[in-house]
Write a structure and sequence with these properties.
The protein is an alpha/beta fold. The chain has helices spanning 8-18, 41-44, 54-58, 60-72, 88-91, 93-97, 101-111, 148-154, 167-180, 197-210, 217-233, and strands at residues 32-37, 76-82, 131-135, 159-165, 184-193, 213-215. The mean pLDDT is 95.
């Protein structure tokens, strides 16, 4: 698991701006979705992955724990899968122009729908009644990437818990865009994975200071369960 390192000075700045360390501790479980980004074989399975992130395998138990808690308290679980589509060679030519030809070929092979790489990691506790969304860009929310925004709004979701891989690319991009589309957004500190602790912590710090909240799995589950009980008693 990543070694979390959020300087106290960052926490102090957050409290000075928002009045508390965790602004979304009062989240409404029935309006909350767990969004799991790119926990696919393309990023996790040796021999298949075009861009493997070893830490991604370690966060799977936490993601499963969160999924169980979100379902139990009335929220939604959303599994995001990145896909390669032929048209992206033109309409996202900048990405492919930044990669060596052999890396582009590996990416295409790993992320083509129907391939082994496209599939979700086998140990994820995905259920048939969960929501499955395909995305075409790093962010699931950016225009032309997916229909995630519309799907969430159709279910009355106003809060998203972001998990997946990698913290500093697809997860952070999705989380920042979620906030800018007016979703209350939380990045799960031990439910996201990056190549290094440095990358992971840097992404969390930047997000926390300006875009939303960060919580551990245990804290997020505690908030869900506490608030569900409170609302049931009202």
């Amino acid at each position: 698991m990543h070694k979390l390192s959020i300087p106290q000075s960052v926490v102090d700045r957050v409290i000075a701006r928002r009045g508390k360390e965790h602004i979304y501790g009062d989240l409404v479980p029935a309006k909350t979705a767990l969004v799991v980004v790119d926990l696919q074989n393309a990023f996790m399975l040796q021999g298949v992955a075009h861009s493997p992130c070893a830490m991604a395998r370690e966060v799977v138990p936490n993601v499963n724990q969160l999924a169980k808690a979100v379902r139990a308290t009335g929220g939604k679980v959303v599994w995001i899968q990145t896909a390669f589509r032929e048209e992206s060679l033109e309409d996202w030519s900048v990405l492919h122009g930044m990669s060596l030809p052999d890396r582009t070929s590996k990416r295409i092979e790993a992320l083509t729908p129907g391939s082994k790489g496209y599939e979700l990691w086998a140990e994820l506790d995905a259920k048939p009644d969960d929501i499955f969304v395909e995305k075409l860009r790093f962010s699931a929310f950016i225009q032309g990437s997916s229909n995630l925004e519309q799907v969430l709004r159709s279910h009355g979701i106003d809060t998203v818990l972001i998990t997946g891989t990698v913290t500093s690319v697809c997860c952070e991009s999705t989380a920042r865009d979620a906030m800018m589309l007016n979703f209350k957004t939380v990045m799960i500190t031990d439910g996201n994975a990056a190549a290094t602790d440095f990358d992971h912590n840097g992404a969390l710090i930047g997000f926390y200071l300006t875009f939303g909240d960060i919580m551990s799995t245990d804290l997020a589950v505690s908030c869900l369960e506490r608030n569900a009980l409170k609302m049931a008693a009202e």
